[in-house]
């Protein structure tokens, strides 16, 4: 029967073998030394408290010993002692903001229309992402990722108009004359209508009718979510003269063009010749009747 091994010796031999192998591999397994944070000696001259830790109020005009007495740190005479220099004041010369203004002043009355071109619409139709058998509004364009980030509306442009071969019925905020010509040549139709910035957000959320309002003459058949007879909000109509005149113009395919009578133009200021002549005739007849003796 072989002699038994001492358990303590066996364990000590294993530990010694591990330590020896570790000592052999130590140069190859050495960890990179950790970089100790170091600071330059120059910061010793600029040591100070945190700004929030010092809250002593400076008392001005309380004698020369305080360092802020007499003139209170403002010096003698002049505009800077008696008052304050206005912001942008340059000693009386014409300000640089006037002589050399920055280009592109902000126009608060401009609108930011998101452009959409005809070739992109045709590409989306070919991929099956847009249904040409139904009216295409900004809601369908945004949902299909055909456009992104609508702010004040959508404008239809004519790039790639010769590629359009599918008749579409599209409702947008504005449309160029070339885009209208291409769409109608393909057998489709363009309808421009007014959207306020708030209406754009609500249309994209699906809580407002994307095409029909109170002044719409022929309702556009659009799919209504939930209750098929009611939307959460009504689509607004234009209130400013500029917008009303734009959507009264048949050349823009505006949805208010039905309001024009025969011979009338979209302008709310200039009247048609027939209306002006009839008004002048009424005035002459009134003057003639007033001059009669009996």
What are the SSEs and their pairings?
Elements: H1 7-25, H2 79-82, H3 96-99, E1 114-117, H4 118-126, H5 138-143, E2 154-157, E3 169-172, E4 174-175, H6 177-185, E5 189-192, H7 197-205, E6 208-213, E7 233-235, H8 241-247, H9 273-290
InterPro entries: Ribosomal_uL15 (IPR030878), Ribosomal_uL15/eL18 (IPR021131), Ribosomal_uL15/eL18_sf (IPR036227), Ribosomal_uL15_bac-type (IPR005749)
Organism: Saccharata proteae CBS 121410
Keywords: Ribonucleoprotein, Ribosomal protein
Characteristic key phrases:
Ribosomal protein L15, 7 strands, two-stranded parallel sheet, structural constituent of ribosome, 294 residues, 9% strand, ribosomal protein, 29% helix
Largest sheet: 3 strands, parallel
Helicity level, as a percent range? 25-40%
Termini separation comes to 161 Å
What is the CATH topology assignment of the domain at 114-259? Ribosomal Protein L15, Chain: K, domain 2
Number of helices: 9
Q: Give the SSE order as H and E letters.
A: HHHEHHEEEHEHEEHH
What shape does the CA trace take? flat
The chain-level mean pLDDT equals: 85
Structural class: alpha/beta
Q: Low-confidence stretches at least 5 residues in length (pLDDT < 50)?
A: none
Count of β-strands: 7
CATH C-level class of the domain at 114-259 is Alpha Beta
Q: What is this structure, in a nutshell?
A:
Helices cover 29% and strands 9% of the residues. It has helices at 7-25, 79-82, 96-99, 118-126, 138-143, 177-185, 197-205, 241-247, 273-290, and strands at 114-117, 154-157, 169-172, 174-175, 189-192, 208-213, 233-235. Residues 31-92 are annotated as: Disordered.
């Amino acid at each position: 029967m072989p002699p038994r091994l001492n358990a303590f010796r066996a364990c000590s031999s294993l530990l010694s073998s591990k330590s020896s192998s570790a000592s052999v591999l130590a140069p190859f397994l050495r960890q990179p030394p950790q970089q100790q944070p170091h600071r330059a000696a120059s910061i010793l001259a600029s040591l100070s408290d945190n700004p929030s830790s010092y809250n002593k109020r400076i008392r001005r005009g309380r004698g020369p010993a305080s360092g802020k007495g007499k003139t209170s740190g403002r010096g003698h005479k002049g505009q800077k002692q008696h008052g304050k220099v206005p912001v942008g004041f340059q000693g009386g010369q014409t300000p640089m903001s006037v002589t050399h203004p920055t280009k592109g002043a902000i126009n608060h009355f401009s609108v930011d229309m998101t452009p959409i071109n005809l070739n992109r619409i045709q590409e989306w139709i070919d991929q099956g992402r847009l249904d040409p058998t139904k009216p295409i509004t900004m809601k369908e364009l945004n949902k299909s990722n055909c456009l992104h980030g609508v702010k004040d509306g959508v404008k239809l442009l004519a790039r790639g108009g010769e590629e359009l071969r599918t008749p579409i019925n599209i409702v947008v905020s504005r449309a160029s004359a070339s885009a209208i010509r291409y769409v109608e040549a393909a057998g489709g139709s363009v309808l421009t209508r007014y959207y306020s910035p708030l209406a754009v957000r609500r249309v994209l959320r699906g809580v407002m009718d994307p095409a029909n309002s109170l002044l719409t003459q022929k309702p556009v058949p659009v799919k209504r979510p939930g209750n098929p007879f009611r939307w959460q909000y009504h689509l607004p109509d234009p209130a400013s003269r500029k917008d009303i005149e734009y959507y009264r113009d048949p050349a823009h395919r505006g949805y208010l063009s039905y309001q024009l009578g025969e011979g009338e133009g979209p302008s709310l200021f200039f009247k048609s010749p027939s209306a002006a002549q009839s008004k002048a005739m009424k005035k002459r007849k009134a003057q003639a009747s007033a001059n009669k003796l009996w």
